[in-house]
Design brief:
- The chain has one helix spanning 3-25, and strands spanning 37-42, 45-50, 56-58, 78-84, 87-92, 102-107, 113-117, 123-130, 133-141, 147-155, 160-163, 173-179, 182-187, 192-196, 203-204, 214-215, 218-229, 236-245, 251-258, 263-265, 268-271, 280-285, 292-296, 302-307, 314-318, 324-326, 341-352, 355-358, 362-367, 373-377.
- By secondary structure, the protein is mainly β.
- Strand 13 and strand 14 (192-196) form a beta hairpin.
Length: 379
């Protein structure tokens, strides 16, 4: 090989090597990624909902998949998925007890599925993602039949899972949020605490607030008022919503009374109010008592929205004549590219003779700026 050809070869090698290195070191997650869809785990299938035309399609890329057994990469999803850039992280692969056994990642842009972590024994639960780490609980059965929990961290760069707790815990630990270099946690036993990013220097009683109940410099606190209110046959517990300034600690009441757990989204608050009357849907047959039971939409079919300080309250949408009913929460499902649409699960009913029966869930796609909405069924 001539010297000239050898130099060309070396230069090509260096160029290829540098390009491959730059790709390996480049950030894997595109945090600016958006699309025009909302994603929801509905009726045991993970769907992609188009906010423009109100259609739904399974996220599983196999057109022949029935989405009802282990052959489907989204089978047995547990808890809420977490969206980070173009990725959706979730727990799936139901065990014999119906609990998840795999930590998975799906690339919304490329359609690539990855099985990131599957423990040799036990199940997984309570997953959250921050930066290059996934936090989750690994659950295992003890000799006496009880369940114990190891808090795990899965490093997305090194593809490695490590235990953060030296000993198994009697209750699961939940990752809430991060702020000023600390992670805030709470347990199913109601305890709050924080640690540094290495899960050291624990401070008991240090309270953090989940993203769902946070907006900018404010955290929101839901308090029961102790009252049960509503029209006869549609009684519900009452709540108030308070807002805390994270810097000063000052707390004010932004909504004095509501009948649901609220959602904080795009500097707005979504919630249900007590209504003077509620839509009657029909009667169900109670197999245990043999009686007719009246079914109503206890939330009145009306979804309300206000600014983050509780002002400018307005009716966002009314589905009272749709034949569907709101459930007990206003949970925001998935994400959308514009950020204006949210998804809320609805109950549906169908007529069976003189009675109605509960059907498959539907999804309400509603624009929080205009109130325009679509109800999308998957059956």
């Amino acid at each position: 090989m001539s010297m000239k050809r050898r130099m060309v070869f070396i230069l090509l090698f260096i160029m290829i090597f540098c390009v491959s290195c730059s790709k390996d070191n480049a950030p894997d997650t595109d945090y600016s990624y958006t699309d025009n869809y909302i994603y929801a785990n509905l009726n045991s299938t993970f769907y992609r909902f188009n906010v423009e035309n109100g259609t739904a399609s399974p996220l599983c890329p196999d057109p022949l998949c029935e989405h009802n057994d282990e052959s489907c990469p989204f089978f047995g999803m547990e808890g809420d998925p977490v969206f980070t850039g173009q990725y959706v992280y979730y727990l799936a692969g139901a065990s014999d007890f119906g609990e998840a056994i795999r930590l998975c990642r799906f690339d919304l842009r490329s359609g690539k599925y990855e099985n990131l972590y599957e423990p040799a024994a036990g199940t997984l639960s309570e997953m959250n993602v921050y930066g290059n780490n996934v936090y989750l609980n690994q659950n295992r059965l003890t000799e006496n039949g009880s369940v114990e929990f190891l808090l795990m961290k899965y490093d997305l760069k090194n593809k490695k899972a490590t235990a953060l707790t030296e000993k198994a815990q009697s209750v699961p630990q939940y990752f809430l949020s991060t702020e000023n270099g600390r992670i805030y946690w709470y347990t199913s036993g109601g305890e709050h605490y924080s640690t540094d990013m290495e899960y050291k220097n624990r401070i008991d009683g240090d309270t953090g607030y989940a993203d769902r109940l946070s907006s900018g410099n404010y955290a929101y606190i839901v308090e029961p008022t102790g009252e049960i209110k509503g029209v006869p046959g549609s009684k519900l517990p009452a709540f108030r919503l308070r807002r805390k300034d994270k810097t000063t600690g000052d707390t004010i009441t932004v909504i004095a009374e509501m009948c649901s757990f609220p959602t904080i989204y795009n500097n707005c608050i979504l919630y249900f109010k007590f209504q003077d009357s509620v839509p009657f849907i029909g009667c169900m047959y109670d197999e245990y008592s043999g009686e007719r039971v009246a079914v109503t939409d206890k939330n009145g079919g009306k979804l309300y929205i206000c600014d983050s300080d509780g002002k400018n309250e307005r009716l966002l949408c009314d589905i009272g004549d749709s034949g569907c009913a709101f459930t007990n929460a206003t949970g925001v499902t998935g994400k959308s590219g514009s950020g204006d649409y949210i998804g809320i699960e609805l109950s549906t009913y169908y007529q069976d003779g003189e009675y109605i029966k509960l059907g498959e869930s539907a999804l309400l796609l509603v624009n929080i700026k205009t109130g325009e909405y679509k109800i999308v069924r998957t059956d």
